[in-house]
């Protein structure tokens, strides 16, 4: 019996549409066809479990084979199979209502991706690479086997054929523009990418294995060489860790799985095992990696699966931005795949899943903080980047994270914001009632300023990561009566202004004279000169950059959005002359104008040197001048 007919679809151009819109993802044809074979095998297992199939299940391995000479790829299963009527129903009658209209709408969004998952067209992805496709299938219920053939047009042929075993073979006659898929390494690459965690064994190619005796020693052949055998290569030999119960797993299991996923990565800090079936289905394992000070390197390490089939590592529309620093797997059949990004972002399940993961992450961090704070603090270098990123990008996470977010002082002590407030409110509150948090971004370069602050009994926290400028700006708006000031943004008495005026040894006229001298010597409009009453042990001149300008420059240096305009703005500095320093008295007593200018210039250059601002010719002149001053003395 042979039958011919036309595939029932609502557009004559379905195959060109499939080819055109799926071309960028054309390798997924293998994922779709293998997934179909796995589904057929699992359906048979289910029927056997409930007693509707009483035959022997036997070997359910799905086998993929390539014949380079014949230009064919075959995907074979021993699953549920199909009758002739089922072939007509499931293969010929494609529910594709309104296809043309949808494609036009889809094209307008500018989104690239797959239409297959949206319309249940998994089988038809075969025509992305094949000029002709054969289906040879036999139902588990018995009866004659059926062969269905289509050349990519809407016409097909169907006939009875001989087939000994139940199940389905899909044979792709590969088109000339897709011969890359006839290479064994290419197919193995795709199978490893998409299918290595499927629940039914997937076999492709062979492995050479050395034969060993009972004691594990190699068996020799007649030539005295190690005897080898060829064995089927199983893509998915290991069951994925996320489908197992956490109670059945040890730390070693999680670490071993991580090494398989990220063989070049360091061991993770800790992990979360996700397992929820209401109001959505979600499983997975998320790892906290040792985060580098470069977020781009750490992103795109979460793999999205659907029923153990790999979908993508682009999860930015499913997982909040800061959670993309995590590594691991999330698996959910409830995430709509292969649709436009705007639809994905508005999907209710996606939002619920995103919120759930955020909550689980926050709970895990809080648990780590409360149960083993010492260990948590030791890992803060990596955890801190992650937590700070989350606090400035996700309001809900901020509300939870403020309990376990830490500030590390330059002396290595860790405190939450509440602990910091309790400990330093008495000493670091300014005249307006604001708690002033002094911070440093470079402990070596800002050492003199840190030391000056400590001499006053003040604490200085370390804020030296690429995200800290953004973090400071974000939390400063949320913390009540708290401000952050970089330790070298001004002289320490002005950073925490307590309205305590120090007596100056200079008269008003002397202060005016000193100010005019330094303005003349510095001769740079980017400097604002002031004469201040500082300690006799402080430097004669202190150069600082105002806090606002420092923040803008730092954010610009770290690629801060919207800060590029700062590149065109002139720099601004405060030059504070210490009225109570001995050099100032020496300047005032001198009657030689050249000597006065020389002393003033030397004090300015000392201040620049302490800020790593003295370079080139100015540095050379400073060294020569210093030598002359020593010789004169």
UniProtKB/TrEMBL annotation:
Protein name: Chaperone protein HtpG
Presence of the UniProt keyword Nucleotide-binding in the record: yes
Native organism: Persicobacter psychrovividus
InterPro entries per record: HATPase_C_sf, Heat_shock_protein_90_CS, HSP90_C, Hsp90_fam, Hsp90_N, Ribosomal_Su5_D2-typ_SF
UniProt xrefs under PANTHER family: HEAT SHOCK PROTEIN 90 FAMILY MEMBER
Keywords, comma-separated and alphabetical: ATP-binding, Chaperone, Nucleotide-binding
Record bears the keyword tRNA processing: no
Family: Belongs to the heat shock protein 90 family.
Organism classification: Bacteria, Pseudomonadati, Bacteroidota, Cytophagia, Cytophagales
CDD domains: HATPase_Hsp90-like (cd16927)
The gene coding this protein: htpG
Superkingdom of the organism of origin: Bacteria
